[in-house]
Each structure stands twice: as C-alpha cells, then as structure tokens.
Design brief:
5 strands; 29% strand; alpha+beta
C-alpha cells in the first residue's frame, strides 16, 4: 500500500561528484497528532523512504532539521 500522506517539503541533497541525491521529506505533525496546534512547526523526517530516526517516532522543529542538514553537509554526507 502506498503512502497517503504527502510531504510538506522535499529536500534533495547531493554531494558534488555523487550521482545519487538523498531525498529528505518533511511531514507536518498534523498527520500523527490529534491536537496539531501543540506541535505547530514540528515535522517528521523521512530520508530515502525510511523514517528517521530508524525504529523511533520523533517530531522535530525546523531548527533541528536545519542543524541536522548542516551536520550532514559538514560530515560530507549526501
């Protein structure tokens, strides 16, 4: 069965020289939470079709997404 939820944002991250980009999708908290106003601005992350962190349910702020993205770039992942 295919995913019914649609990402709010999609980020493609590719390091120069790599042929494959990593697909990072951000889904709003409203898909999982009954009271979305409590979690406004929080998202769930899916990387290359796998929920992050693997095996755990986690909602993060956009600021956390930025920090994770910058960390991945700094470590040369992409």
């Amino acid at each position: 069965m295919s995913e019914k939820r649609k990402p709010e944002y999609t980020i493609l991250l590719r390091k120069q020289g790599n042929t494959k980009a990593r697909k990072i999708e951000l889904f709003p908290a409203k898909y999982w939470i009954d009271k979305p106003m409590q979690y406004k601005g929080r998202v769930r992350i899916r990387v290359d079709g796998i929920w992050w962190p693997k095996g755990e349910f986690k909602l993060v702020t956009i600021t956390s997404v930025k920090e994770l993205l910058f960390k991945a770039i700094q470590q040369g992942k992409g």
